[in-house]
Amino acid sequence: MYKRLSIVMFPFLLIALIGASVWGYLEHQEKNTILIKAENQYQRAFHDLSFHMDKLHTELGNTLAVNSTAEPSYRKGLVNVWRLTSQAQGDITQLPLTLLPFNKTEDFLANMANYSYRMSVRDMTKQPLTESEIKTLSSLYDHSAEITKEIRGVQDKVMTNNLRWMDVELALASENEVHDNAIIDGFSIVDKKVGAYEELNWGPGSMGMLSQKKISMLSGNDMTADQIKQKAAQFLGQSDTAAMQVVENGGNSPENQSFSVVVPSGTNGADNVQMDFTKKGGQLIYFMKPRDVKESKFDLRQARDISNEFLDQHEYKDMSAVSYDQYQNIANIIFAKREKDVTIYPQQISVKVALDTLEVIGLQAADYIYGQVQRNIGQPKITAAEARKQLSPNMKVTAESLAIIKNDLDEEVLCHEFVGKMNNNLYRVYINGDLGMEERIETIRPDQAQAAAEKAT
């Protein structure tokens, strides 16, 4: 009986064995294909990085080789520097360096891209490069040469020894393994050398200076966790702070120091109220009260009015709605500071309102808090009628007002703001109030244009 059973079962077992072997082989082949594809992508990104850094060094040299008064040549060179730096940043993001300390090099490239872009869009006939800026470009030329040399050295080792980036990924992912890898060592050396560079004068729009500038906007003393609890309770209209959970953020980075507050709401953790406060001064940056909003009983105009009252109650004075829209029964209203009939767009607050009960369930006030500066708002040198000549004659203007915006150099400029319709599209156009040149053009939705029209009246 067993012999007969084995004769019957043997073909099925053989077929199953063959099937399992084929399946395993195909899985192995598919895995190898994925690994090979990933390795090829890593290799391409790495060699592109080496190429772009080499070209960047060359372009900086070419830019410095011409006279600083030769505006077209300098502008072209700076645009190329910005483009190549941005490409190098893109190459780095494609490499498995997440777990490798490489932030100093990334910050250096980000500052270089920001610096070259700001220089390239500037009117050099009125603001020629200063000696300090030329010195910074010369330092960038020297530093880029050193970075290029180090990356080329890593590239030579990769090609000579057939090193694989997949091994780098595995080495970085292994917490217990000693990182004895030529690629890891090479990039670590690059980052250490960049970190040792003397601090460059990146100008007023640099990332580091902007962070310090943000901190200088704040007033008051550093808060404690208990003081933050009291502020949260006051904002929410509560008296009991026992259940509140407070976490301090930022460590030793002044620009990131804040407190996060969680206020439990019932038994469902997903409904907890979340708030962020600055450590200095204890100003509210963020507030969110998540909940399901299943229907809309009120419209956007009513939500805007409730938001206005809410901001007044919490000492956000002189705010004007500049746009509002609706998503999943929640209204999002954006307000900007209004001073002397001028809309100050860099100082904004976003308010979320549930359209079932008109309850304010969200607030984002970071731009408002860090935008509190003393502004000397004067009168534009050109009239609205003169500025209007810069618009297309085919545009039907529906609203006009004065506004302060940030230009491409991260500078605040006073502009004539026009809202108009052309080719079945709505636009918001900003014309520089002193120079009469176009600063920015935005395509906007009809509800945003309505808000802009109401703001101007």
From TrEMBL:
GO biological process: spore germination
Annotated Sporulation protein YpeB PepSY1 and PepSY2 domain residues: 185-377
Residue stretches making up the Sporulation protein YpeB N-terminal domain: 30-167
UniProt keywords, alphabetically: Membrane, Transmembrane, Transmembrane helix
Superkingdom of this protein's organism: Bacteria
Pfam families hit by this protein: YPEB_N (PF20769), YPEB_PepSY1-2 (PF14620)
Residue ranges crossing the lipid bilayer per the database entry: 7-26
Signal sequence region: none
Keyword Transmembrane: yes
UniProt-listed NCBIfam families: spore_YpeB (TIGR02889)
Protein's UniProt name: Germination protein YpeB
Protein encoded by which gene: ypeB
